[in-house]
Specification:
Elements lengths: L2 E6 L8 E6 L2 H13 L3 E8 L8 E2 L2 E12 L5 E18 L5 E7 L13 H10 L3 H4 L10 H11 L4 H9 L3 H16 L1
Parallel strand pairs: 1-3
Antiparallel strand pairs: 1-7, 2-6, 3-4, 3-5, 5-6, 6-7
Helix pairs in contact: 2-4, 4-6
């Protein structure tokens, strides 16, 4: 069965949330179908192109998401909040006449819970500071700061890293490797 794809210029990791504004008919129809069938869709990071373009190139590892909230915005657009559930590998895809991408996906093995080692406690503190921002608070995420996976995933989403760096971190399968790489990228920022 093919799953709808939603190319974005943002990375979303498992257990993360992101707000979206839908206005294109292809995505409104996609959302309606997802709600009717109680299925989700896949967020993939754009390599080349734009979010609203009819043609773009995207990475093959993304995140399967489910709708957690929706509302009509003052602008008249539909505002939704989605939450990542699992990482997936896109094995092939097609694009329909209306521009919607769909693809066959393979759910990747869920990462094991990893207790946050003391050497990465500063990363948890940094995350707590980032989560004080009103836009992040509004997402209503519950973060287990003792879980190295969650600390790493949230930092991937929130830190000002390049798209390529974020995708690299998403694709890692070991939470402690991800934390180590995040520390490395932070050290580069400080220089």
């Amino acid at each position: 069965m093919k799953t709808p794809l939603f190319p974005l210029n943002s990375v979303l990791c498992p257990m993360g949330r992101i707000p979206l504004q839908l206005f294109e008919p292809r995505y409104l129809d996609m959302l309606s179908e997802c709600m009717k069938t109680d299925r989700g869709f896949v967020v993939v990071l754009i390599k080349e192109g734009e979010e609203v373009a009819d043609n773009c190139e995207f990475y093959s590892v993304g995140t399967y998401v489910r709708l957690v909230d929706f509302r009509k915005l003052e602008s008249g657009l539909l505002g939704i909040t989605i939450e990542g559930t699992s990482k997936v590998l896109l094995t092939d895809f097609t694009q329909s006449i209306d521009g919607l991408y769909t693809g066959r996906i393979e759910h990747l093995i869920e990462e094991e819970y990893a207790t946050l080692p003391n050497e990465y406690l500063e990363l948890a503190t940094l995350l707590e500071q980032l989560e004080r921002h009103p836009a992040v608070k509004a997402l209503n995420m519950k973060v287990d700061y003792a879980d190295g996976r969650q600390v790493g995933w949230r930092l991937v989403e929130l830190l000002p890293l390049t798209k390529k760096e974020k995708q690299f971190l998403l694709e890692l399968t070991d939470p402690l490797d991800r934390l180590k790489q995040i520390e490395y990228f932070l050290s580069l920022m400080e220089q």
